[in-house]
Amino acid sequence: MADLNEKVDSEIEDALQDAIEVADERQVAEIVESISSQEALRQVSLMKADERDQLISILAPEAAAELIEEAPAELAVAMIEGLETSVAAKIMEELQTDTQADIVQELEKESAEAILSAMDRESAEDVRKLTQYQPDTAGGLMELEVFSFLDSDSVGTVLTRLVEGDEAFERHRGQHPYILDQYGRLVGVVSLRGLLRSKRSVRLEDIMSPALAVQADTSLDELVTLFDENPFLGVPVVDKRGGLLGAVSRRELTEAEMVRAELQSLSRQQVGDELRSMPILLRSRRRLSWLSSNIVLNIIAASVIAAYEETLSAVIAIAVFLPMVSDMSGCSGNQAVGVSMRELALGLTRPIDLFHVLKKEFGVGIINGIVLGILIGGVAWAWKGNGWLGLVIGLALALNTVVAVSIGGTVPLLLKRFGIDPAVASGPLLTTVTDMVGFFLVLSIASLFMTQLLS
Amino acid sequence: MADLNEKVDSEIEDALQDAIEVADERQVAEIVESISSQEALRQVSLMKADERDQLISILAPEAAAELIEEAPAELAVAMIEGLETSVAAKIMEELQTDTQADIVQELEKESAEAILSAMDRESAEDVRKLTQYQPDTAGGLMELEVFSFLDSDSVGTVLTRLVEGDEAFERHRGQHPYILDQYGRLVGVVSLRGLLRSKRSVRLEDIMSPALAVQADTSLDELVTLFDENPFLGVPVVDKRGGLLGAVSRRELTEAEMVRAELQSLSRQQVGDELRSMPILLRSRRRLSWLSSNIVLNIIAASVIAAYEETLSAVIAIAVFLPMVSDMSGCSGNQAVGVSMRELALGLTRPIDLFHVLKKEFGVGIINGIVLGILIGGVAWAWKGNGWLGLVIGLALALNTVVAVSIGGTVPLLLKRFGIDPAVASGPLLTTVTDMVGFFLVLSIASLFMTQLLS
Question: Contact A328/B295, CB-based, under 8 Å?
Answer without folding.
Answer: yes
